[in-house]
Amino acid sequence: xxxxxxxxxxxxxxxxxxxxxxxxxxxxxxxxxxxxxxxxxxxxxxxxxxxxxxxxxxxxxxxxxxxxxxxxxxxxxxxxxxxxxxxxxxxxxxxxxxxxxxxxxxxxxxxxxxxxxxxxxxxxxxxxxxxxxxxxxxxxxxxxxxxxxxxxxxxxxxxxxxxxxxxxxxxxxxxxxxxxxxxxxxxxxxxxxxxxxxxxxxxxxxxxxxxxxxxxxxxxxxxxxxxxxxxxxxxxxxxxxxxxxxxxxxxxxxxxxxxxxxxxxxxxxxxxxxxxxxxxxxxxxxxxxxxxxxxxxxxxxxxxxxxxxxxxxxxxxxxxxxxxxxxxxxxxxxxxxxxxxxxxxxxxxxxxxxxxxx
Length: 358
Ligand SMILES: Nc1ncnc2c1ncn2[C@@H]1O[C@H](COP(=O)(O)OP(=O)(O)OP(=O)(O)O)[C@@H](O)[C@H]1O
Ligand SMILES: N[C@@H](CCO)C(=O)O
What we know:
Elements: E1 7-19, E2 23-41, E3 54-59, H1 73-83, E4 94-100, H2 110-125, H3 132-142, H4 146-154, E5 157-162, H5 167-173, H6 177-180, E6 204-208, E7 216-222, H7 228-233, H8 241-257, H9 265-271, H10 278-281, H11 288-294, E8 303-308, E9 315-319, H12 323-336, E10 341-346, E11 353-356
Parallel strand pairs: 3-4
Antiparallel strand pairs: 1-2, 1-11, 2-4, 2-5, 5-6, 7-9, 7-10, 8-9
Helix pairs in contact: 1-2, 2-3, 2-4, 3-4, 8-9
The structure holds adenosine-5'-triphosphate and L-homoserine (HSE).
């Protein structure tokens, strides 16, 4: 298809729940809520000046998300990918409709999904044909903990690490975010387009674990936002050996236990406990401790384990049944603390996909 023809494609990126208890910054699970971009590029009309992309947005975040392509996270990331391939602007006559099912700032990976959507958008607009690993490099230059973006891109229950790079590559992967996503439009005369910080190759490695089809995700979603930055700000810089061993023992068991059929509630409940992030986040999420300690497989048959979803405030319960009782009882504890919630029963989702429409 030539660039003078109309093009349309759709990008679907799933929500994710990171950590799953002990796997802080390591594991993520894709969920059946999506951000969907419907992208249309009309053929250029001769003589008409270059036009900026038109963004419309429906669903979650509609009242707060910036619609300027210079400010919107997804289009800024797409432009970063394009600039790294010597393409300095969006095509003319580009319109993007975003329909978003992922609530902002709740621990369901909305920012990771927006970043992955941006990488996929840049890849399609530039017809770059980037392999998955390279797309992950771009996503990791923006969102620097790999758990959400890797699970959103790959789909399923995914573990990842950031590689030990050589010194130059390490420095390149750690340039300030303000250089990766500069303020647009640039000041007059600023040479912004020519030298973007290109990601080193192979920043992250990942693996998809097995998943038992019988397991669903009950998400209990408070009606308040907690930014990831704030929830990371309360974490200590150092941990005791006991706490690290506690988490590593559980994570090693959890990554296989959730793939077993039937899953073993006694094994998984204990394996979803954490000492690295949840204890420090308790003051930010009223009810967290009571929910995770009072809702157990013996009080709630069908429950496998319960934890904070990502940086919170959403609670994630993995279960094979008894979904409503788990959600009702967790909601009641939140309400006692004055927190209103919504809950959703979600499937474990697939990977991000791009569909060509015509
Ligand atoms: N579809 C989107 N389009 C543009 N910006 C978005 C979109 N989704 C999320 N964002 C931006 O990301 C911010 C939320 O990011 P944050 O990292 O605080 O929470 P989260 O990603 O929802 O949670 P977590 O990382 O714990 O799973 C929003 O306030 C908004 O600025
Ligand atoms: N691992 C991250 C996930 C949030 O995006 C955290 O818990 O801060």
